[in-house]
Amino acid sequence: MNIKDKNTKELEVVCQDIRDEILRVVSKNGGHLSSTLGATELIVAMHKVFDIKKDPFIFDVSHQSYAHKLLTGRWEEFDTLREFNGLCAISLGVGAAKAIAIKGEQESRIPVVMIGDGSMTAGMVYEALNELGDRKYPMVIILNDNEMSIAKPIGAISRMLSSAMASPFYQRFKKTTESFVDNFGEGAHYIAKRMEESLKLITPGLMFEEMGINYIGPVDGHNLEQLIDILETAKNMGQPVIVHAQTLKGKGYAIAEGKEEKWHGVGPFDLESGSSAKKSTDKSATQIYTEALLKLCETNDKIVGATAAMPTGTGLTRLLEKYPNRFWDVAIAEQHAVTSMSALAKEGFKPFCTIYSTFLQRGFDQVIHDTCLMDLPVVFALDRAGIVGEDGETHQGAFDISFLRAIPNMTLFAPRDEKSFHYAMKFASEYEHPCSLRYPRGSFKKTSLVGATEFELGKSQLLQSSESDTLLIGYGQGVGRAYETAELLDEKVSILDLRFVKPLDEGMLRKMAKEHKKWFIFSDSAKMGGVGSAILEFLAKEKILDVQVTSFEYEDCFITHGNTTLIEESLGILPRQLAEKIKG
Ligand SMILES: Cc1ncc(C[n+]2csc(CCOP(=O)(O)OP(=O)(O)O)c2C)c(N)n1
After folding, report:
1. Do 35 and 69 meet the contact criterion of CB atoms below 8 Å apart?
2. Inside any domain, residue 450
3. Which amino acid residue places its CA nearest to atom 4 of ligand 1?
4. For 427-475, what is each residue's pLDDT tens digit?
5. What's the pLDDT score for residue 61?
6. Is the pTM of this model over 0.85?
7. 234 within 8 A of 42, measured Cβ to Cβ
8. What range(s) does the Transketolase-like pyrimidine-binding domain occupy (predicted)?
9. What CATH number is associated with residue 386?
10. What is the domain count for the chain?
11. Is the CB of 358 under 6 A from ligand 1?
């Protein structure tokens, strides 16, 4: 759709069409809703003012950018939509600006970046602004401020973004000084700024401008005409500029408007009533985690914990409510979560750092230097390990075993069901070194295998024993997958719940190597550096050469998003597919 020639009235109709389409598809398929509804006018204005054919358009999180997808020829494919992950858009903008400068294209091209207020709590934003303010590349940053992260935004930055400017005094002050300043030029600008400062009106404008970045705002992010004007001005400034736009999450769909977290990402729902189409009845691994942690907290007042802007997703909401002095939402700041929890461990507390598998990647260096190097007893509770479904390629929890296993002092283990989860949590709460436990999105697979026993460092549990040459080794959710596969085989095979991938149960593995010569590894994790790798390293160290190991972990590729069963089918890891592979 070419919107360049359309006037404001026509563009308002485009906005309405976009909202209708987003609502139609998301209510049918599920998806992210409220952020993207709120960003519609911003994106239409971006397309009106900037040129998508040559200006780099960079979105921090694609769940704000459905309108952009619709405007860039993806109306037909929109039914297949889900999200990307970001939180580094300004860095991408700075990189693009450098490329434009090297190519000598600054006269004709300019990067335009959209970033959410929640993302302003992530450190990388400031690393990029620090350089941008110094080098002054022409670039427009649209700060889409809906006063929400997924949950309520945390911290001084978000407070500053909204509070000072919302006050009527500030708004009056700003209006008066602006007209005054316009009449008196540069020197007056300086005086006005100093006045704002001395009146303790610490505003985002001051902060950004002190960093060397121009600031325009706050502007009404739903007023198309004003937005187009302001973006034109910003584009022609020839300098970095932040346009601070205030938007309403869920705008245009009354039921979802405002600060209700549940409309951030939704399953299919009924458009009329807003009620959701289906609810899962099985207890999720996250729910079990919450219950186990609440129970441990009752008797151990040293337990503390953090989430990085995912209180609901990680199940920490109830702990934050019950123990406001022991549990913290630290905003989108995984690095800070890891390091600050490490310091608490040094002070004798027992931190549970609760983070999705994929997001801990942000805190890798901190896990090495601030936790493991000091051998501090931080527990990393990794939710969403394995395939996470529709949330995007970036959200798959594939790499945690591979990257954590390499770190000295780190212990890795995983529960396979509700009972073993409680034992794993008890072990974690008593363990005096860094450790990490992983668990899946949704519920554990059900088995009728023997019940779990207490967790003991480096000890596996043999769940099913047989004369067969075949041994299925499961880790975490892989145990249920091994069980379902075993049920489809012609003979009864042995099944081992590995429990610990570091340290391995060497005694058990030596014994198994004598009794079974065909081993199959089941774990919802990347193959490289994963559970199979650990076992092969062990066999090589022991010079056990007569055992054949086949790992059913993920191949060396990024895994697309979509329905979990369909993805697993495409990877060939559904139990019926695995059974066929084992039968040969
Ligand atoms: C490193 C990392 N941590 C956490 C998340 C989960 N997450 C996705 S969007 C989001 C909130 C972003 O807030 P904001 O930038 O204000 O955008 P909004 O959703 O309000 O439109 C969070 C916490 C993530 N994607 N990446």
Report:
1. no
2. no
3. 332
4. 999 999 999 999 999 999 999 999 999 999 999 999 999 999 999 999 9
5. 81
6. yes
7. no
8. 283-447
9. 3.40.50.970
10. 3
11. no
